[in-house]
Amino acid sequence: MTRTRTWRRSRLLAGALSLTMIAAACGGRDSEAKGGDSGDEGGSSGTEVAGGQSLVDTSICADYQPTQGVTDKTIKLGTSMPQSGPFAVFGGILNGLNAYFDWRNDNGGVAGRQVELVAYDDEYKADRTSDNVKKLVEEDKVFALVSVLGTQNNLGVRDYLDENCVPDMGVATGSPQWGDAAQYPWLQGGIPSYALEMKRLVDYLEEVQPDAKIALLRQNDDFGDAYENSLNLLTEKNDMEVVATETYDPLASTDTKAQVDKLAQSDATVFVNGASGSQCPNTLKFVPKEWKVLTYVGITCNSKLALSLAGGNEEGIISTQATLDPANTEDQKDPAMQEFLTESVKHGLTKDEAELGVAAIGWGFGAQMAELLESPKELTRGDLMTSAWSTDADAVGLMRPGSKLITDGAKDPWLLESLRIVKRTDGQWVEASPMKDYNGQSNDFVGS
């Protein structure tokens, strides 16, 4: 959905604790939206959440608009993600989001309302994400953001959304920085922490290669920092070692061959492919046949669609999973997966799109967002965040059976903390090590 309008930004130049919120709410929404005319307009000063943390303080929002984007009939959400350029593979997430909300709208909506989703393309460029988010908040007047993709992209808007008290939910990146809920209570991650990914990998290596020598390909950004810092921390007190690291710029190059060639000259027995977007599967093409390493790809690189770009070089690699895989014949028997494969095709996806995996991520984000929207008694921005920081729910969407959505204020800000290790075998992911729960521990694996 594309809209062209002008937007303006207003700032309040008051005291240090007086932070701004955009003026001009949707006409009549306070009287229409549930909780819109409550005493403090859907928020409180120092709302208590589980864990004793006073996270959501709407009193510091100078022009707090608790129900902007909400009426008694609709909820307007917004997102920004790449739909073109080298990271366009992630555009399938938007297709999954749209399919999920279309399905829910046909079955009574979410929280008794129809969901409207406004989306803009940012090509994975942080400056465009910033422009898009300001447009969504100030011009389209969305209630909340959902599944904005990219670490730098979210960092670029985090202060703005925090100052303006706009929820940034289901953030589609696992940066460990999302673990600072006390400092940034208006942002919540939607996938496992990248630090937790590395912890699950290292725990698996303890089983199969306790003296592993690790070579790391990483991006020259916060995503790359997360992998490297965590690996360094997690190998300090065991017999593993990071023996080689190479860095590349994901925005300036689509070819990592030179970096892989250098890593292959090391004595590594494990290769952590920390690339993302199309660079990740393309990197698998450059791994020399004579380099006998166990190769790991990240949770953002293990869809059927992404691996279709690997040129047949994905056999035997490993990854982590938190969710069901629509391309896996065993997972296709799960009722939640059957529902996705049936209903997503009825609501905009092709059969191939549903099975390629990226759209399933968007479907999962939609289910996660719906769960959070339906949790608070009053549908206001403040109450949404308060509820989000004290969640205890069974698996939703395509989460693997037995996993849960749990948060506990700043003590445990991560929604998803259960992962299994899978190995690519005959074109499918096969479990190599079962689901392991790290509830409340993700921040312990961050490193520096």
TrEMBL record:
InterPro entries: Leu-bd, Peripla_BP_I. PROSITE patterns: PROKAR_LIPOPROTEIN. It comes from the Bacteria. Keywords: Signal. Residues 1-25 form the signal peptide. Pfam families: Peripla_BP_6. Gene3D superfamilies: 3.40.50.2300. Residues 74-385 form the Leucine-binding protein domain. Residues 30-50 are annotated as: Disordered. Belongs to the leucine-binding protein family. This is Leucine-binding protein domain-containing protein. It comes from Candidatus Neomicrothrix parvicella RN1. The lineage of its organism: Bacteria, Bacillati, Actinomycetota, Acidimicrobiia, Acidimicrobiales.
